[in-house]
Write a structure and sequence with these properties.
This protein is α+β, with helices and mostly antiparallel strands. It is 47% helix and 18% strand.
């Protein structure tokens, strides 16, 4: 019975492991950056096993050797120290940590997402904007744009300039490389390259609302000739990505199908950046804020019926300053001050009667 249960458990465990591997697209990278990241994962995992495997093996051996029924095991209740054990227990983990720190430092700079990829071919720029809940891609050199679909030439570096027009998101193509956040008013970068032709899915890896699970797009890695054909296909679309169409895209929607725009309004990506960037607001938003601010100031500063008008207050202030300038010096005595006060009172009464 025990052997049967053990067999069932082994089969179930193998099925779980195989199912997990089938979805482990990160470990099946098709790009230079992704392959280096996979190598780093295996390297770090192997180094950690140097400490984990001996610990597991020794746990079983110690339990077996020092079991109660083993009469050959020595009983040493006063034992408390072993230099050899101390060296092994502390020395090996310290060496592993030091080596991991070195590898991490080197690879962190080598695999920096902002670092351009060295290649004989020119880098292809693609501007990325995350919306609710879809991805907008602008090809500035080709003057085209798409929704939830991109194409890139094989073996050609790609620079993604990434921002968000709504909530914070994260741009990720698992089989090509790492993940970079998309934030409103900020431009981040990600350099990738596809070394094999194929179709690779992209996604958002940062929760951004109800339609987050549908924020997926297709990435087609194709030859140069096929890329040119794809660009021409997109250019045939009569749709234009301008302010009007962009406003429609800003409306929240889920599970969006790919869309093509045959041309793009110049400077649209920078305009989206400026809309949310502090100190460089969109002119329309600035004018709207000024109008609303003026209206609010007029509302809050409107005088009450029993409150003097601003002109009267200003005149009274000028009169006060003039009177202060004509006040007698302190050495002339109290009588002059009293006479001045009586004179001011008479003038005020005359003004009220008038």
């Amino acid at each position: 019975m025990k052997q049967r249960l053990l067999g069932i458990f082994s089969v179930a465990l193998a099925a779980v492991v195989l199912a997990a591997c089938s979805e482990a697209v990160v470990l099946n990278s098709k790009g230079e950056i992704g392959q280096q990241q996979v190598a780093l994962i295996y390297q770090a995992f192997g180094l950690m096993l140097i400490a984990v495997i001996p610990a597991l093996v020794l746990t079983v051996l110690f339990a077996w050797k020092y079991r109660a029924s083993n009469k050959n095991a020595k009983y040493r209740p006063k034992w408390s120290h072993s230099t050899a054990i101390e060296v092994v227990v502390w020395g090996i983990p310290c060496l592993i940590i030091a080596f991991l720190a070195y590898v991490t430092y080197i690879t962190s700079h080598k695999l920096d997402p902002y670092r351009p990829i060295e290649s004989d071919k020119p880098t292809l720029p693609i501007q990325v904007v995350s919306l609710d809940w879809k991805w907008m891609f602008i090809y500035p050199e080709q003057n085209i744009a798409t929704i939830n679909e991109i194409a890139i030439p094989v073996d050609r570096p790609v620079r993604f300039d990434i921002t968000s027009a709504t909530a914070m998101n994260a741009f990720n193509i698992p089989q090509l490389g790492g993940m970079v956040y998309a934030m409103a008013g900020m431009q981040t970068q990600l350099h990738l390259i596809a070394n094999e032709a194929g179709t690779y899915f992209g996604q958002s890896t940062n929760y951004s609302g109800a339609g987050f699970s549908g924020m997926r797009f297709q990435t087609y890695a194709v030859s140069d000739a096929e890329f040119d054909q794809w660009v021409n296909k997109v250019r045939q679309s009569p749709a234009v990505l301008n302010d009007a169409s962009y406003d429609k895209l800003m409306v929240k929607s889920r599970n969006n199908a790919p869309e093509y725009f045959g041309s793009v309004q110049p400077g649209l990506f920078q305009q989206i950046l400026d809309t949310y960037m502090g100190g460089r607001m969109d002119p329309d938003l600035v004018e709207k804020a000024k109008t609303e601010g003026t209206s609010q100031r007029q509302h809050h500063h409107q005088p009450r019926q029993d409150e003097p008008a601003p002109a009267a207050v200003e005149h009274a202030a000028d009169a006060g300053e003039h009177g202060a300038a004509e006040q007698p010096a302190a050495g002339q005595g109290e009588n002059a001050a009293v006479e001045g006060a009586q004179h001011d009172g008479q003038a005020h009464g005359a003004a009220v009667q008038h």
